[in-house]
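Much of our argument rests on the idea that a fold can be written as discrete symbols. Part of our work consisted of pairing the sequence of a single chain with a tokenised description of its backbone. The amino acid sequence and the backbone structure tokens for this protein are reproduced below.
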Amino acid sequence: MALGLGPVTVLAQVPQPAPAPLANPSVAVDPNQPGATPHWTITLFEPYCGGYRIGDGVYLSFESPMTTPTNPPDGSLLFAGQPASVSRVGDALRVAPSPGTLWSMICAPGDRSLTLELLPPAGVTLPDAAGTYALDYWTGANLTPNTLSFDVPDPTDGSSSDNSSGGQPERLADVGNPVPA
């Protein structure tokens, strides 16, 4: 018995892959030698939907004995591979997308990789001594600071890695520990 409803469209829900497990934030410096002014690569994981939901930026503060640059030159910091808008806020740098940066409007659940880069002209120099050092980061959407630690090896013990000839930077740390209040 026909009901005369015409063609019927059946919508099926396509199974979506499970979100990838969260990776730890990381920092890499190249070269990682005492006293060098390296290329810094900081990788974070943040929610994504039509742009990074980070509030008004990512904040970076270098722990002593390193210092946070006062006024890095234009083009010396990158946000997701694009020139960043950078300003000094207290003892931290606020790094955000430059005005006019276009973002995909495709939404995806979960956290996505976000890379910040500080190029050598930004002037963030490694300490002159080998050791473990740290920088703190937080976002405008999540004001809880996290600490990323990294090692600067002693060049006399043979473990130093100079990747300035174009190799991939050595991954120095995968740490995301909250800073104690």
User: Anything to note?
Assistant: Residues 8-21, 160-181 have pLDDT under 50 and may be disordered. The chain has no helices and eleven strands. The longest strand covers residues 107-118.
